[in-house]
TrEMBL record:
UniProtKB keywords: Kinase, Transferase
Top-level taxon of the source organism: Bacteria
UniProt xrefs under Pfam families: AAA_33
UniProt keyword Cell membrane present: no
One MF annotation (Gene Ontology) recorded for this entry: kinase activity
Keyword hit for Zinc: no
Protein's recorded name: Putative kinase
Length: 170
């Protein structure tokens, strides 16, 4: 049975770093909302204001991969409760297992340093400033989830914790 792993958290907490390492370790497909949103903004449609468009595209691509039996890792902020509900619907529609992972960075100075020194690796993606991250709407997951704090922890340790959770869940 395929597995959907949804990573959420504010920009700069380490989601993409974890998602990439997790994908390398497990062979899962890594789907990043930043990549989709940047492509939509650069398209001839110039979709810049449709905040949900990237998430809707990601849901469709995730379904395609899950129905092929591929595990999928979603790398998204998931700013409002509606988005985790969408991932639950994707899991239901495809009959896959869903693991929610909320990524945090409890060291505020480290989180700020990450945000302020971050360089975009996606053409057309403008990374947010620290003040934009602080002002961003973000509703933490309310349901079952694994919370992974990346402050002072090795990436491989965080990935091992996620993999162990995936293996232990029914």
């Amino acid at each position: 049975m395929a597995r959907l792993v949804a990573l959420s958290g504010l920009p700069g907490v380490g989601k993409t770093t974890l998602a990439r390492a997790l994908a390398r370790r497990t062979g899962a497909v890594h789907l990043r909302v930043d990549t989709v949103e940047a492509a939509l903004a650069q398209s001839t449609l110039a979709i810049r204001e449709a905040a949900d468009a990237g998430y809707v595209v990601l849901a469709g691509v995730a379904k395609d991969n899950l129905l092929l039996g591929r595990d999928v890792i979603l790398d998204t902020v998931n700013p409002v409760a509606l988005i985790p509900e969408m991932w639950a619907g994707v899991a239901r529609d495809t009959g896959c297992k869903l693991t929610n992972v909320e990524v945090t960075c409890s060291d505020r100075a480290l989180h700020r340093r990450r945000v302020e020194t971050r360089q975009s690796d996606v053409p057309g993606l403008v990374v947010p400033s620290w003040s934009q991250v602080l002002a961003r709407e973000f509703e933490p997951w309310q349901g079952d989830r694994l919370v992974v704090d990346t402050a002072g922890r090795d990436v491989s340790d965080c990935v091992t914790r996620i993999v162990d959770t995936i293996r232990e869940s029914p």
